[in-house]
Amino acid sequence: MTRFLVLTVLALLAAACSREHAHETPAEQAIEYRHSLYHVISWNVHAMNDMVEQKASFDSSKFARNAERVAYLVPMLPEGFTPDSYLAGKTDAKPEIWKNREDFDAKLKKFATDSAALAELAKNSTLEQLTPAFKELKGDCKSCHDKYRAED
Ligand code: HEC
User: Which of 79, 144, 146, 148 to mutate to test the pocket of ligand 1 (most atoms within 8 A of CB)?
Assistant: First the structure.
């Protein structure tokens, strides 16, 4: 029985893996990679946001864990914006990113610095002390999206 289960799981995994990457170009893989990161970042930012807006009660260890995850993930974003990864219709990344690469990279760098600062602060702070650093981080989302992300 156990052996059967193991074999079934392995077969399912193999099928999932081969289907997933069967017809993807490197550009599509890069788009999928950055989308995945943004989704996980977003999940954790929303959880912190609920605490900041007092829709959820403040749990300092949960907040610290969310902040730490974001700080860990953000530095992985730059490699997802590969030079050839602008495909109309499949990405909301504007071509302006590649025209103003230095400015875009500076925004990603600020995002990384701000997320690291929040994670450090979150180790030992009250919600009141954390709020300005959290707002700074949220400001990074908007300031980059306004310029470099196409409207849905
Ligand atoms: C330096 C620029 C930049 C910053 C900072 C940034 N984003 Fe984005 N974000 C983008 C771009 C560009 C896209 C479009 C990516 C694509 O479609 O390929 C995007 C897309 C997304 C998506 C949609 C992903 C998808 O599957 O379509 C989510 C969710 C997201 N960002 C959340 C956030 C949150 C939350 C923050 C702040 C905590 C943030 N982003 C900060 C540039 C940024």
Answer: 144
> Residue 84's pLDDT is what?
80
Whether residue 9 is predicted with pLDDT greater than 90 in this model: the reply is no
Contacts (Cβ under 8 Å, ≥6 apart) of 57: 51
> Would the CB of 59 count as within 6 Å of ligand 1?
no
Distance in angstroms (rounded) separating the CA atoms of residues 82 and 108: 14
pLDDT computed for residue 87 by the predictor: 80
- What does each C-alpha distance from 92 to 31, 57, 85, 139 come to in angstroms? 10, 34, 11, 19
Inter-residue contact 54 to 60 (CB < 8 Å): no
Nearest-atom index, ligand 1, CA of 39: 29
pLDDT over threshold 70, residue 1:
no
Q: Is the CB of 119 under 6 A from ligand 1?
A: no
Rounded CA separation 114/58 (Å): 21
* Structure-block tokens of residue 56: 């959820």
